[in-house]
């Protein structure tokens, strides 16, 4: 069964003046997902978010929200989107509740929503305090409350945990999970930290130098990580082993006179390599599996050329 993506970009490109910033970006966000939009600083995440919100105009390509072209139905489509772009602009002298109220009136949203959104982000008990007394985490949650006023189907959050302490990061993560699981929101959340995204995202897009270098489910990213596992083999002479076992060791790389690295395939293959070495009369001093971390895989992706996009 195929569903219409909630958000899609088609060959989206952007330039600042003559400088190309985004190249042919094809994002695909399924309804009900938390899409982690990952990339190092300067990769183009904020620019993409601004294009998704119609705040910048593409040099080429298009943005589609809920199956419709943003350029043609801007107001109607953006009514269904809530956004938090970096730090929310708040009135520091007003209370949390008054900050929400100010936007609620402006947008003509029902009065009952103020208490609802404050409760949703866990700020009911602090709603009477002026925003200047709020921690950064509370400010982010207040910004999110304001973004939730019109009960949007899609939330676009640009680095919402930037600068938060570990507690604030956990609270934000739990809030995103709750918004998806209990309120059916689809969320796009950008970050430069894979460690944060892997804990909350169902899908991941990785951007590097303005190009999407990976897009898929978190599971597919983890599979890519497993595929990068390698066997490290310690023996007396790497060259002798390679000569004796050309079929098994053609692609092995000698990193030291007695050390070979080869791509990990399966447990069976590992056992076959070990048995073959011993049968060939070669000493086996060590055999270990090295699994790169997801962080390594992310770094690998963001160092690689953009050929991995599906
Ligand atoms: N107003 C601007 N004029 C010219 N270049 C810009 C402007 N804003 C951003 N850029 C450039 O566009 C590129 C992408 O920036 P962008 O802010 O989208 O990246 P990012 O992935 O969000 O990174 P960060 O997390 O550091 O904001 C960068 O090279 C940046 O220098």
Automatic annotation (TrEMBL):
Keywords: ATP-binding, Nucleotide-binding, Transport. Residues 7-234 form the ABC transporter domain. PROSITE patterns: ABC_TRANSPORTER_1, ABC_TRANSPORTER_2. It comes from the Bacteria. GO terms for molecular function: ATP binding; ATP hydrolysis activity. Transmembrane segments: none annotated. InterPro entries: AAA+_ATPase, ABC_transporter-like_ATP-bd, ABC_transporter-like_CS, P-loop_NTPase. Pfam families: ABC_tran. SMART domains: AAA (SM00382). Belongs to the ABC transporter superfamily. This is ATP-binding cassette domain-containing protein.
